């Protein structure tokens, strides 16, 4: 199992990860370290453990907000999908109605043409 070295709050940690996940783990550690450093800048030196816990809570807060947004987007997708299905059904109904009216008009024209043929034969020439 591969191992990577990451640095959090100035301390180095050796961590194992799955093959091919090294860059991903390093990126995650860098993001977490950014949270720690930002908190350290905002609240000062408050102790490693407390700082790490606060950074962890901040990350989980961001995760919860992202999950809330995803849930809202999923709900919006459901609403838009239903609306799209309703529009499609309405379109199909209008298309069917139009085809029916067009068929009625074609039959009426055909009937008129037959009536004209019967009452006024075309001159032979």
Automatic annotation (TrEMBL):
InterPro entries linked: Cell_div_ZapA-like, Cell_div_ZapA-like_sf, Cell_div_ZapA_N
Keywords of the record: Cell cycle, Cell division, Coiled coil, Cytoplasm, Septation
The UniProt record lists the keyword Aminoacyl-tRNA synthetase: no
Localization (cell): Cytoplasm
Segments forming a coiled coil: 56-83
Superkingdom of this protein's organism: Bacteria
GO biological process: cell division
UniProt cross-references to Pfam families, sorted A to Z: ZapA (PF05164)
PANTHER family per UniProt: CELL DIVISION PROTEIN ZAPA
Oligomer and partners: Homodimer. Interacts with FtsZ.
Function, as annotated: Activator of cell division through the inhibition of FtsZ GTPase activity, therefore promoting FtsZ assembly into bundles of protofilaments necessary for the formation of the division Z ring. It is recruited early at mid-cell but it is not essential for cell division.
Annotated protein name in UniProt: Cell division protein ZapA
Source organism of the structure: Devosia neptuniae
Gene: zapA
